[in-house]
Amino acid sequence: MRENQELFRTGNERIGETARGSGADGRAIPFLCECAAETCLARVELTFAEYKEVRSGSNQFVILPGHLRIEGERVLEDNGRFQIVRKAEL
What we know:
Shape: globular
Helix content: 25-40%
Structural class: alpha+beta
Radius of gyration: 12 Å
Oligomer: single chain
Mean pLDDT: 85
């Protein structure tokens, strides 16, 4: 499950780099849900500023509300469109 999150996080970092370079600052961008479900292919719509907020912590991930979390993850923000979750420190 953790591997899935890390894989989608890597993909989202590439999406974020592309979005930053294209000037999509105020528009919603489809990022990958970083939940723990291995079969999840859902998209999370975030602006680049929202994405930067998620990435402000190295152990933070963005998921859709109600999606699978790893035991010990804590919801930091839930705005109805997405949740920012933090993994417990190892």
